[in-house]
Design brief:
- With 162 residues, the protein is of the alpha+beta class.
- It contains 6 helices and 5 strands, in the order ααβαββαββαα.
- It has one domain (3-161).
- A hairpin with a 2-residue loop joins β2 (57-61) and β3 (64-68).
- It binds iron/sulfur cluster (2 copies).
């Protein structure tokens, strides 16, 4: 099994809350704005799951390849970006830490409660997923890039908040 396969498997069954959080918000993170096809960032090696898969499209994004989904999915098909949301594994001083994904601020009702509002099993699974991804050079680079992007988003938000 490759690192990305193991990472996806680690998040196959665990979810942010013990109950289905999609019921709270009508699965807000699955809805793209009309005319907007932003897609989900793919982790190294994840393209292989979606190449030639009917209804799924791989596009080049500014931060790397992204996949655009058909709007509904089976849990087993879900890209890592969706499995991790609203958390992300970040790499700080060589260690994987779990953080709230800053992109969730505007979308996810769980954002305002922070990490303490997320199930402990999910937080642990996200950290362990990060550790699996960090085993490869490409995975580590991706985590570093994500950490930088998150720090930029956080400081931008701070600027707008004054
Ligand atoms: S937006 Fe947040 S609460 Fe809603 S389905 Fe997505 S992760 Fe769950
Ligand atoms: S892949 Fe599935 S979980 Fe992710 S946005 Fe599409 S429908 Fe939602």
């Amino acid at each position: 099994m490759t690192a990305v396969e193991r990472a996806r498997e680690r998040l196959e069954k665990v979810t942010p809350l013990e109950s289905d959080c999609g019921r709270i918000c009508g699965a807000a993170c699955c809805r793209s704005l009309e005319g907007e096809e932003t897609g989900m960032l793919l982790f190294p090696g994840e393209e292989d799951f979606y190449r030639d898969k009917p209804g799924w499209k791989i596009l080049k994004g500014s931060a790397g390849n992204v996949v655009v989904c058909p709007g509904t999915c089976d849990r087993r098909e879900r890209p890592l970006s969706c499995r991790l949301f609203p958390l992300l594994p970040l790499l700080r001083e060589g260690k994987v830490r779990t953080g709230m994904d800053q992109r969730a601020r505007a979308v996810c009702p769980l954002f305002s409660s922070g990490l303490k509002g997320i199930s402990e099993a999910f937080r642990k699974a996200v950290r362990e997923t990060g550790e699996i991804l960090a085993e490869t050079d490409e995975g580590r680079e991706m985590l570093i890039k994500l950490t930088e992007m998150q720090d930029e988003l956080k400081s931008l938000h701070g600027l707008f908040q004054g």
